[in-house]
Write a structure and sequence with these properties.
The protein has about 240 residues and is α/β, with parallel strands linked by helices. Helix content is about 45%, strand content about 15%. It has a single domain (about 10-240), classed as Rossmann fold. It has helices at about 20-30, 45-55, 70-85, 105-125, 145, 155-175, 195-205, 215-225, and strands at about 10, 35-40, 60-65, 85-90, 130-140, 180-185, 235-240. The chain is globular, with a radius of gyration of 17 Å.
Amino acid sequence: MNGLLESKKALVTGGSRGIGREIVLEYARAGASVVTCGRHSSEALTSLSRELKDVGGQHRVLIADVTHAEEVDHLVDECRATLGGLDILVHNAGVNSRVPFPELLLEEWQRIMDTNLGAAYTVTQRALPLLSAGGSVVFVGSRVATVGLPMGAHYTASKAGLVGLARSLAKELGPRGLRVNVLAPGPMESDAPMPPEARQRFEHGVALRRLGRASDVAGVAIFLASDLAAFVSGETINVDGGV
């Protein structure tokens, strides 16, 4: 435990795996009390609960679909009951798919938008009364927001929307002492197998010649949540190894 987030209270959506899981665990190790959620009951959520118990502290792992306002309300109510308030809000819940634009159905466009962008609106608005002055809101976006992604117009648009949302909220909520920023990961390692030629192509496009790890993103998430970033707001920080 490095103490950077000692006594801080955090809500992290989409914490069951990948980047979200790493942020949850690193926040807990840094001294924060964390409430997090996953969309469905899963072994990943169960194992996360076990890991948080090993870390120690006051944490809650819940099931909540953040695309449904009533489930967001339940999530925020749990934060109020368990933590009493919030210093940190991380919207990490997200989904992705690859679909050629001519074949992109409205239902799939809306599914991606509802989770990646719509839920950021809902969670932030509902959690706002719990956020205290000096608090930090972090949206987990994507590097593709500014470079584009073939067969990913819907995903790219949703992540680009987070940038505009963050910049506007930074101006609106700044007088309340709240900071709002975007974390934009580049090509990342994942649990899914990747063909060697695809890996080589991605790595060749990164200055550091490797894919990112969840821990790379979590480290910057700790910075943005901590007092070290007390004068950082409205920014998008690319964590992409130099794409």
